[in-house]
Amino acid sequence: MEILKKHKYFVLTLVFFGVLYALISLVNHYFFRTYALDLGAYNNALFDYVHFQLNDSTVFKETSENLLADHFDIYLILFAPLSLIFGTYTLLIVQIVFLLFGGAGVYAYFKSSEKTAPIALMAAVFFYSFFGVFGAVANDYHSNVIAASLIPWFFYLVRYKKILASSFLLLLLILSKENISLWLVFVCLGLGIEYRKDVYRRNYLLIASVFSGICFVIITSVLMPALANNNQYPHFHYSYLGNSSSEALIHLITHPVESISMLFTNHNNSLGGDFVKMELHVLLLFSGLLFLIKKPHYLLMLVPIYFQKLFHDNYSMWGIGGQYSIEFAPILAIGIFMVVAEFKKQNLIKPIGVIIVCLAIGSTFRTMDNTVYFTNKSQIRFYQKSHYQRDYNVAEVHQELSKIPADAVVSAQSSFLPHLSLRDNIYQFPMIKDAEYIIYSEMENTYPLKDEEFIALTNKLKDASEWQVLYDAEVIILKRGIN
Question: What is this structure's pTM?
């Protein structure tokens, strides 16, 4: 109780953002705004892992392939037992808990020093309210969100020379997703510069950086290709830079001016890609990025995040949406407020901190209101009625879905699949294969089919003697009959 009293304002902050995140993420799931990719596929992996079997990716692939070949995500194995308690909400709850834990790491990092303690709460609020955090909460579950939430604790452990604990955490971070190990190369280098006068910590961080780099190469060049059907790493989507990581590195070195310009331009002339990158830059500047000029080693930590976003072939990666900006959150929260804490004029520290937090909150609301790149506003606008309703009877649909046997093979449209994915076999519609049930709705996004293709297929299925209509409203449930 004494600890709660001492940190009561942080506890209230924790509760406030916990409720806010739940109102976004859990409400989205209930109202069918989570999808086959990625929550459905990951939920299906939880089922497989808790039953001591590997996941075969058949949720979204015609041919079976180890899910670790798509993303080297060991966290799903660790979280799998929780699905026995929390069901299809498991990963969303886990993500919220870790985000709150990440903010607690920011708070602990600043609170543990007398010099920085006065701005600890502001730094935590900045982390919690950053637009990249809200974007991640509004869009399913992703393990890089968990990794980003652990980064403040890595900073904390290194700061207090808890080398054994920080090494364990480093390994845990590497196991989150294949690209995180590359990020850690730069995080450790940046921290090595921060502690350059401390030989022990500096050398440790340099070793950690090299180790992370080796792990990145092993995971992406050896392990994942070995698990893939085509023996290749599947996520090198940077064709403008070359056909491989080595070619990309050579291009960056030999064409520095062109490479820098790519950070600001629609480099592959994507339709709809104009100004998407600029929007990201503007919101990061409004969120306080310029303060890091005083501590450029924090900018170094962001280099791979900028590159993996802004050089990508898909322009949806360039912007502010989804989970693709979450890695900025811990670096900005700690870096910016470390700069503020070192102001010589002490009377400016709190006012400047408040202004930064307000600008960050404003930037977040900007992502909820009007964006260059299209975002589904009903997913993230927790303050509007439309977030808490759909155009069909959601409760009734949940009741009908609950009648589908747990061992039945299912083909479900993307938005329904996560709710049915804790089973051995389930496919994203229009994959049907040996499915015994099909669930779809014209009121949901018809991806990966075009609207006319979707209507033609569903009309054909509904009229086929092979399929019996179990539920016929805005959502359709078909059951395979006996010929």
Answer: 0.95
